[in-house]
Amino acid sequence: MNRFEHKVVIITGAGSGLGQSSALQIAKEGAKLVLVDLNPNGLEETKQQVLAAVPQAELLIVTANVAKEEEVRSYVDQTMERFGRIDGFFNNAGIEGKQDLTEDFGIDEFHKVVSINLDGVFYGMKYVLKIMKEQGSGSIVNTASVGGIRGVGSQSGYAASKHGVVGLTRNSGIEYGQYGISIKAIAPGAIMTPMVEGSLRQIGGDDWEAAGEEFIQPNPMKRYGKPEEVAYLVAFLLSNQADYINAAVIPIDGGQSYKY
């Protein structure tokens, strides 16, 4: 399929995990890509993967911290200078942060997680939405989490920030649907990405793989999701095929969020 032929898509958090797998999938479907991440090495890895699969792909690589408004504005400005429009935005960059009980959760750590996961999403929407409104079209997919629609123990900052992403998505979808813009969020569960591996290492240390097997047992499907499974969903949601899906939050979690 060439659902993104002649279209420009920005992906934040493109240096690993869901951003990297989505970049590869969307490039295969013809998009011009703007890849944004704080880690230049991760961006280079994604770039090489994309070019190996799609040698003719048009790419703009931007190293940026999404928690800084001026850097978000810069990657949007650079996109417009290079490509002149923005058709899709995978607003994906995020971190999990440390795990601790709420009473012990560090204040600086809380603000760090919220600044990246929630402020960064807001900044991206703020600057991309203005352009999409002028165009009269566009699609945004924000990365929330199962932790944004139910509680997750020992992760106050993460849960608070992802609940905020859900609220922003629903509110903005209501505001901007009239301008031909659809806004939705995905709520991944246990997807085996570097971030999830890092979380398991916090729990299990050197024995993190065994901890991971124990952690996944309550999941109805008894397995971790694959990044490419999320990429297929993101590509669909950013495409014109999903234009009427708006202000929605779509779990991709093996049924985890529905199990009590």
UniProtKB/TrEMBL annotation:
GO terms for biological process: bile acid metabolic process. Transmembrane segments: none annotated. Gene3D superfamilies: NAD(P)-binding Rossmann-like Domain. One of its GO terms (molecular function) is oxidoreductase activity. The keyword Oxidoreductase applies. InterPro entries: NAD(P)-bd_dom_sf (IPR036291), SDR_fam (IPR002347). It holds the Pfam family adh_short_C2. It comes from the Bacteria. Keywords: Oxidoreductase. Belongs to the short-chain dehydrogenases/reductases (SDR) family. This is SDR family oxidoreductase. It comes from Saccharibacillus brassicae.
